[in-house]
Amino acid sequence: LVEQSLLVQRLELQHGDPDELARERRLLEQVKKLTELNPMLGTRGVRLALLYPEIPVMQVRAIARAAFAVSAAGGEPKVEIMVPLVAFAEELRRMRATIEQTLEEEFASSGQRFDYTIGTMIEIPRAAVVAAQIAEHADFFSFGTNDLTQTGIGISRDDAEGSFLAAYQDQDVVPSNPFATIDADGVAELVRIGTTGGRQTTPDL
Fold first, then answer.
1. Which residue spans within the chain are E strands per DSSP?
2. What pTM was computed for the model?
3. What's the chain's Rg over C-alpha atoms?
4. Torsion on CA atoms 45, 47, 48, 51, rounded to nearest 10
5. DSSP SS3 for 142
6. Among candidate residues 118, 119, 122, the one with its CA nearest the CA of residue 131
7. Beta bridge partners of 120
8. Quick one: DSSP state of residue 185?
9. What digits encode the pLDDT tens for the residues 27-86?
10. Contact 86, 92 (CB under 8 A)
């Protein structure tokens, strides 16, 4: 945001190219719209992808073309596409539809196909709790224990490790750094809930 603001100011002061100035002003407005007070819990992961579908479409096309290149070189690509920060089954349903449509377009234009799976990262408590619903649209789960620890315990790793977490360990408030080992009573239980729920829907998950 600061860099873009300075660029616009410089172009204004130098009476730069009007078209370039207009472009940079539009970009600055977009940057301002995306600026958040708490970006860790803001517009990222699947949320950003649903708001700006051109981003996942571009990423999926790149994945497909990389897989085609691997095949052309004699390799056997194993394509797994994982959607991050899913909290609602509908998020994954919509993303899966976008991914599959994009892949089918790439298959049609290239005359080639490959096998692929689509899954999600379980990294917030709600996803673990409603894993049975999310699994209806997932071929696999992966557990993001860093974010699951942050959201499950309600602490920021960047802030906690530089402030109270060391004191908590010294004073035996917590047995260990929950980012160095899995919190067995809390975060590990969320993983268990997510695993159990997901396999209720998809036994081979």
1. 79-83, 116-122, 140-143
2. 0.82
3. 22
4. 160
5. strand
6. 122
7. 83, 141
8. T
9. 878 777 777 767 778 889 999 999 999 999 999 999 999 999 999 999 999 999 999 999
10. yes
